[in-house]
């Protein structure tokens, strides 16, 4: 018998949970998110166990996806003050850490910006000399703040100075409050530094959240391992999550895409996740989310996280519809839909009202000509579907693809979408995120600089592949399921030894037999 | 009429420059931040049209040369343009009265403004390309017979090198070689010119034009169907003589690699009615062809704008599935002589096409 796992999605409004055996959904429930989130998680786990008639001891793994940390940054809450240390002077002297951040986020996060000499140039030569006295002074200053983030110029090429500073900080502040930027991002100093600072500012909150989740589930007699899902749809254990909360920033869309793939059995498709206020349109390729080429803004700050290529449009179940039906959104009644929507007796004409009329859906009071005139329904429904068609066309390649509808707002689609090869609304579409979390995979990654002049390229790649696969197995992957997900080469131009940064990522399904209690 | 550039103009100037950079020139983000900061501190700077230059003016061209990737990590200090200009004056025992960008493209359009702001110098409203192109000999200054040196390059350690070469080809070769040992990116002060030189060689009015274009692009942000007619009207009365849509469609294939210090690649775009166009890229968009027929080539400007936002797209930001309009804009007259086309025409950039002006 295949082991059972629980997938949980903690969103801003809802906490969903599913119990899964292989590809089968044994139980699925939707509850409200609580603050702190651990109570809501526990409640969701309780309910899904009852729904599926399962005992805690039969669960092999609990896997959580959450937007808590993204929301904390966006809402500027639960953030601690960070000392941002950057080695590389004189480079960047007039662009210190926190440059071009929104004022309210600076107020919440900025402890001190501490520029130092150090770092290397593009060919690995020292940029300027970092003295021990510089490091000592930076450490003294950093101790006034809850956390520290360390970046150096060309750190991805040579991280020696980052390591020196980090080691010195560890003797004056808790090691779990220090972030070296090369552990969180790649080339692009400002973006990598920004990501490290955001991560550092979330450490206290992340430690609190992960500790609360861990202890409350242990109280419930769960002995199985707990994981969080990362931006790329792979797993990290709670200990790693406590150190790298920023790695969850994009896990919401990633899980919804992966969940849609599992629920529909379709691996190449456009996925539309329709919520209350927005629809996220993403692309599934071979069962994984297509990644964006560019870094993305998080809370108004430039970062270089690779995240799913998502087009968000202002259309959701709560989108407000103009009187003549010609425009929908971006304004939304959001979670007040059950009070505001006309089918629920409220005053506001929403996208849900249009869908109920157009699709004769049995929601609220059901269809009624009292809600709005048929001509308005016709206009608004045409507009709604053309907004989605435009978004599909923008994300799609040359050929039309199947469109998978997930999320609570999937009911909005009452007609054919002309840009879709077919429209599929899989069962359990409302909890696709939790399903996506439950199938997150174990990953292994190798990231190194290889001089291609001295090392054969094919050999270097094969070695890195094998190392990444070993790492994935050590992280819990089933050996025969491991595949190489991504190979990325960044040549350093002009270097004489043809130095190239080589990153290889391997993933595999969790080996529950090894994890089982 | 005297024009000035203040801190609130910098974003528009950079946006207009990205349009004129035809896909190249890199992300102006860092230089935009620095320039806004400098103009807030020192106040607005004066723009002078070539015709209004005093006869005894000494103008130098400025800009950054090197691998854009270096700038992703090794940020500028912030005062390199000022230090470079001072070092140049000291080394040449001459007093610079005006500065001019060597190209309108990415962050290089605003770099001379950093020095000008700190020293209170006016900036010549113009540049040496009217667009962005990859090498020094492709500037309008050498095409008009002006010598590039004495020229000075400053690196991240404030170390400087003074050049005295017989021609621009030698200058370009020496500069490229020195980049290896000067941190991969330098700021140059080059092409010392008189007022007469500038009037003969510079592409005039491109800084104020880039600002105006940027303001227009900001104001028409939204669908290209509505925005494009405004862009076309804008170019009718410029030295570019006109702008037209060459192709519209979706990016269905995109391939790029770094070769010899350049980003080289192709993009394939399919239209809604099944036609296909191919764009050749070497830092900049160099040519667009449908089948075997070139629709436009260098030195005409080929710029891609985003269907949803009408905003120009840098080659490194082009992405799969993006819906785009491909626009062709006429090359400045400086580039349309036979002699100039030998240096900036399609064959000079390795493309098997003959240049046919689009406007």
Share in β-strands of chain B:
25-35%
Number of helices of chain A: 14
Which sheet architecture does the biggest sheet of chain B show?
7 strands, antiparallel
How many domains is the backbone of chain A divided into?
4
The structural class of chain B is: alpha+beta
Helix content of chain A: 25-40%
Structural class designation of chain A: alpha/beta
Rg of chain B over CA atoms, rounded to whole Å, is: 19 Å
Report the major sheet of chain A: 6 strands, mixed
| Strands ordered across the widest β-sheet of chain B | 15-14-13-12-11-17-16
Mean pLDDT of chain B: 91
Would you mind describing this structure in some detail?
The complex is a heterodimer of chains A (517) and B (359). Chain A is of the alpha/beta class. Chain A has 14 helices and 23 strands. In chain A, a hairpin with a 5-residue loop joins strand 9 (226-229) and strand 10 (235-237). In chain A, helix 4 packs across helix 5 (160-170). Chain A is globular, with a radius of gyration of 24 Å. The two termini of chain A are 15 Å apart. Chain B is an alpha+beta fold and 359 residues long. Chain B has two domains: 3-204, 3-Layer(aba) Sandwich (CV3147-like fold), CATH 3.40.1610; 222-349, CV3147-like (Beta Barrel). Chain B is 31% helix and 28% strand. Chain B has eleven helices and 17 strands. Chain B has helices spanning 10-20, 29-42, 68-73, 80-92, 111-119, 140-143, 168-179, 195-201, 206-219, 224-236, 338-344; strands at residues 3-5, 45-48, 59-66, 98-101, 123-124, 126-127, 151-154, 160-163, 185-193, 203-204, 243-259, 262-270, 276-282, 284-290, 293-297, 301-306, 323-329. Chain B has a seven-stranded antiparallel beta sheet with strand order 15-14-13-12-11-17-16. In chain B, strands 4-3-9-7-8 form a five-stranded mixed beta sheet. A three-stranded mixed beta sheet of chain B has the order 1-2-5. The radius of gyration of chain B is 19 Å and the shape is globular. Chain B starts with a strand and ends in a 15-residue tail after the last helix. At the A-B interface, helix 11 of A face helix 2, helix 3 and strand 11 of B.
């Amino acid at each position: 018998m295949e082991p059972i796992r629980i997938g949980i999605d903690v969103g801003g409004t809802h906490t969903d949970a599913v119990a899964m055996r292989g590809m089968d959904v044994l139980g699925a429930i939707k509850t409200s998110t609580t603050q702190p989130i651990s109570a809501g998680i526990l409640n969701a786990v309780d309910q899904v166990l009852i729904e599926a008639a399962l005992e805690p001891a039969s669960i092999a793994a609990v896997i959580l996806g959450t937007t808590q940390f993204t929301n904390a940054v966006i809402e500027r809450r639960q953030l601690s003050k960070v000392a941002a240390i950057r080695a590389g002077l004189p480079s960047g002297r007039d662009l210190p850490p926190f440059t071009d951040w929104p004022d309210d986020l600076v107020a919440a996060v900025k402890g001190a910006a501490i520029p130092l000499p150090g770092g290397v140039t593009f060919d690995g030569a020292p940029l300027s000399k970092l003295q021990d006295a510089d490091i000592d002074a930076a450490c003294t200053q950093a101790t006034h703040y809850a956390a520290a983030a360390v970046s150096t110029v060309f750190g991805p090429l040579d991280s020696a100075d980052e390591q020196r500073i980090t080691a010195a900080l560890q003797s004056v502040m808790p090691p779990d409050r220090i972030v070296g930027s090369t552990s969180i991002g790649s080339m692009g100093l400002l973006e990598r530094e920004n990501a490290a600072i955001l991560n550092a500012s979330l450490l206290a909150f992340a430690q609190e959240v992960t500790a609360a989740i861990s202890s409350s589930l242990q109280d419930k007699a769960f002995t199985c391992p707990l994981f969080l899902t990362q931006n790329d749809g792979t797993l990290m254990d709670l200990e790693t999550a406590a150190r790298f909360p920023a790695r969850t920033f994009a896990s919401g869309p990633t899980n919804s895409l992966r969940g849609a793939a599992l629920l529909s059995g379709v691996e190449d498709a456009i996925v539309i996740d329709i919520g209350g206020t927005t629809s996220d349109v993403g692309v599934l390729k071979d069962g994984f989310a297509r990644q964006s080429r560019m870094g993305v803004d998080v809370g108004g700050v430039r970062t270089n996280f690779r995240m799913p290529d998502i087009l968000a449009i202002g259309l959701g179940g709560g989108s407000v519809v103009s009187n003549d039906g010609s425009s929908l959104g971006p304004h939304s009644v959001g979670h007040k839909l059950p009070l505001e929507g006309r089918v629920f007796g409220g005053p506001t004409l929403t996208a849900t009202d249009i869908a109920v009329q157009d699709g004769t859906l049995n929601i609220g009071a059901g269809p009624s000509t009292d809600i709005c005139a048929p001509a308005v329904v016709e206009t608004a429904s045409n507009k709604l579907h053309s907004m989605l068609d435009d978004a599909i066309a923008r994300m799609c390649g040359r050929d039309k693809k199947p469109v998978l509808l997930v999320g609570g707002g999937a009911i909005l689609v009452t007609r054919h979408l002309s840009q879709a090869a077919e429209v599929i609304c899989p069962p359990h579409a409302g909890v696709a995120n939790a399903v996506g979390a439950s199938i997150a995979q174990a990953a292994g990654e190798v990231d190194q600089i290889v001089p291609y002049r001295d090392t054969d390229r094919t050999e270097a790649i094969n070695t890195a592949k094998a190392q990444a696969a070993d790492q994935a197995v050590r992280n819990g992957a089933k050996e025969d399921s491991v595949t190489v997900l991504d190979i990325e080469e960044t040549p350093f131009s002009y270097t004489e030894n043809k130095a190239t940064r080589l990153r290889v990522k391997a993933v595999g399904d969790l080996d529950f037999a090894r994890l089982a209690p | 009429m005297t024009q000035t550039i203040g801190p609130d103009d910098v974003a528009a100037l950079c946006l207009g420059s990205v349009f004129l950079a035809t896909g190249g020139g890199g992300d102006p983000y860092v230089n935009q931040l620095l320039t806004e900061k400098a103009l807030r501190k020192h106040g607005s700077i004066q723009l002078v049209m070539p015709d209004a230059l005093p006869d005894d003016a000494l103008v130098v061209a400025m800009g950054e040369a090197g691998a854009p990737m270096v700038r992703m990590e090794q940020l500028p200090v912030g005062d390199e343009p000022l230090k470079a200009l001072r070092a140049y004056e000291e080394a040449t025992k001459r007093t610079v009265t005006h500065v001019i960008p060597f190209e309108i493209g990415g962050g290089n359009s605003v770099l001379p403004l950093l020095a000008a702001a700190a020293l209170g110098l006016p900036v010549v409203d113009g540049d040496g390309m009217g667009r962005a192109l990859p090498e020094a000999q492709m500037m309008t200054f050498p095409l008009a017979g002006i010598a590039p040196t004495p020229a000075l390059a400053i690196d991240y350690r404030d170390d400087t090198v003074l050049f005295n070469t017989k021609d621009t080809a030698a200058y370009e070769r020496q500069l490229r070689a020195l980049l290896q040992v000067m941190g991969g990116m330098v700021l140059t002060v080059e092409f010392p010119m008189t007022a007469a030189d500038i009037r003969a060689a510079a592409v005039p009015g491109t800084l104020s034009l880039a600002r105006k274009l940027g303001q227009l692009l900001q104001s028409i942000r939204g669908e290209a169907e509505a925005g494009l007619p405004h862009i076309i009207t804008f170019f009718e009365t410029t030295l570019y003589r006109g702008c037209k849509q060459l192709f519209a469609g979706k990016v269905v294939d995109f391939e790029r690699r770094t070769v010899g210090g350049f980003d080289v690649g192709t993009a394939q775009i399919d239209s809604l009615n099944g036609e296909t166009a191919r764009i050749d890229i070497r830092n900049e968009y160099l040519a667009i062809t449908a089948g075997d027929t070139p629709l436009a080539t260098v030195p005409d400007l080929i710029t891609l704008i985003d269907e949803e936002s009408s905003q120009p797209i840098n080659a490194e930001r082009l992405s799969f599935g993006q819906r785009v309009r491909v626009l062709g804009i006429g090359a400045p007259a400086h580039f349309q002589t036979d002699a100039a086309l030998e240096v900036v025409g399609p064959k000079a950039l390795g493309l098997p096409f003959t240049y046919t002006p689009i406007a």
